[in-house]
Amino acid sequence: MKWKNKGKEFDEIWKEMKISSDEEICFYLFGAGKRGTELCSLFRLMGLLQNVKAFLDNDKALINTVKDGLSVQELSGYIPRKNSIVIISVGEKYEKEISEQLDEFGLKKNVDYFLWNDFYNYYFPLILLYKYNILFDDMVQISLTERCTLRCKNCAHTCPYTDKNNKLDLTIDEAMNSIDSFFGTFDYVNRFTLLGGEPLLYKNICEVTQYLGEKYRSRINDCFITTNATIIPNEQLLNICKNYNIGFEISDYRVAVPAIRNRVNEFIECLEKETIKYRVLNDDWIDLGFLYINNTNKEAERIFDLCKAPCHEVRLNRYYTCILARCASENIYANEGNEYYIEIGSKDEVTRKIAFEFIQGYCQEGYLKMCKHCNGLFSKNNKVTPGEQLLL
Ligand code: SF4
Ligand code: SF4
Fold first, then answer.
1. Distance 151 CA to ligand 1 centre (A)
2. Which ligand neighbours the alpha carbon of 197 most closely?
3. Could you give all domains of the chain from N- to C-terminal order, each with its CATH number?
4. Is the CB–ligand 2 distance for residue 363 below 6 Å?
5. How far apart are CA 377 and CA 198, in angstroms?
6. Concatenated DSSP letters for 367-392?
7. Considering the entire predicted model, what is its pTM?
């Protein structure tokens, strides 16, 4: 979407929501499972847990029990009040059924109750900003280096295509300044990730991880280093991760690259021994097409709106809505376009509102220039083997 009223795009929308500015909002989470618990931990992080009043659930076995310090109630006991809202926090499979149940109960969708995706991606950050003056981001990343131990043909960050004359690593000051810039504008983030390239090639990984943990861990829900697990972390890094509850996300290429199998197994054993949290990523890969796609402006706009660009990046005082676009622009297209980022670092109201709008899909042209060279993350037709290597 093109910015038409930059810095004020949501002012009218917020007024129309008719949430009273004097009264507190009472949140009820319909579903005492994983999503409900995750949302509770975000409310807790932001000091708003007292606004979550109870879980609602259809499971008779859970009624009148206590979960995350909250009682679990039946819907029949819920009394709708002004400023109280229900969030359906169950998996997609049960969402429709519960939505119909709430309709029958007399509640209105997007007024009295919200579906998970609508709430989490839109209403939640909107309410946080406009009601509580909290700027929240779901996910932000810092790419410490474009260098990598592997050369994946369809690397989403286009690392194997980097011009070796480009600057490949952030300096330690640049990395720390990037972290400061982010938290200079944003208040909280669900997931903060250090990555690359391969971040364990980055010589100051310990100092940067320590800095992030020490200064900002209390403003981050989940914190990870994303790695291909081909370099075993040293003891210093393991200790820092333990101290600050920072985990590893392992992009698993053991099938595509059998030569790294033992090393990855060793990496996982090491984390288990040190009781450091980790998760193994086995996501499907798609060929984004950065090397050969040429979309029209109209098509780029359509793709950008569908894509929602979930992978944000902070780099110095620049906040990029799509790290993939930034990488492709630098690595393949000689820095074509400058609409990928906004400048952050200050807490002034306009900067924060612009950052919120940028996350919600507003930008100067209505798309990023790299969307003209991209299939979009939602694409289902271009599946490729994860980790397939380029021949030397
Ligand atoms: S391991 Fe990750 S960063 Fe390295 S080339 Fe493969 S996809 Fe890119
Ligand atoms: S279409 Fe491609 S370049 Fe555009 S936002 Fe999505 S992933 Fe980024």
1. 6
2. 1
3. 11-132 (3.40.50.20), 136-224+232-247+282-384 (3.20.20)
4. no
5. 22
6. S-GGGGG---TT--S-EE-TTPBPP-
7. 0.94
